[in-house]
Amino acid sequence: DSALYATKIFFGEKIAHLKDRDLHSIFCDVPSVELKREDLKLGIPLLDLLAQTPLFSSKGEAKRSLEQKGVYLNNDAINDQSLVITETNLASESCLVIRKGKKNYCVVKFS
């Protein structure tokens, strides 16, 4: 059951309402970063968040990828550069998943 769900996720199904342990087991081999939960509560501008992941070397690169429709939050395409990420965007209790292109993932954990 969890293997089937993991397969669906890697083929683009929206990532939502997972437990942290399930998300970590699906994305165990994916790069991750850890950020402060307090920052998430206040809201993090999307470009700032993207630039803190290993997927993007700068806000400029993140902006270009957004313009080319190549950025996904929990497997949902994002094109709004002014988006502010909050706790409502979490895919699990404390994590969200950023994807660049088709196969480049990063788990962002907030603690």
What do these coordinates show?
This protein is an alpha+beta fold and 111 residues long. Helix content is 33%, strand content 23%. It contains five helices and seven strands. The protein has helices at 2-10, 20-26, 37-42, 46-51, 59-67, and strands spanning 32-35, 44-45, 71-73, 76-77, 84-85, 95-100, 104-110. The protein has a five-stranded mixed β-sheet with strand order 1-7-6-3-4. A hairpin with a 3-residue loop joins strand 6 (95-100) and strand 7. The chain is globular, with a radius of gyration of 13 Å. The chain starts with a helix and ends with a strand. The model has no long low-confidence stretch (mean pLDDT 95).
In short:
The chain contains five helices and seven strands.
List the helices and strands and how they pair.
Elements: H1 2-10, H2 20-26, E1 32-35, H3 37-42, E2 44-45, H4 46-51, H5 59-67, E3 71-73, E4 76-77, E5 84-85, E6 95-100, E7 104-110
Parallel strand pairs: 1-7
Antiparallel strand pairs: 2-5, 3-4, 3-6, 6-7
Low-confidence stretches: none
Alpha carbon gap, first and last residue: 29 Å
Widest sheet: strand ordering: 1-7-6-3-4
Strand content: 15-25%
* Main sheet: strands, sense, barrel: 5 strands, mixed
In helices, the fraction of residues equals 25-40%
Tell me the number of strands. Answer: 7
Give the rounded overall mean pLDDT: 95
User: What series of H and E elements makes up the topology?
Assistant: HHEHEHHEEEEE
Shape: globular
Rg for CA atoms: 13 Å
Give the structural class: alpha+beta
Number of helices: 5
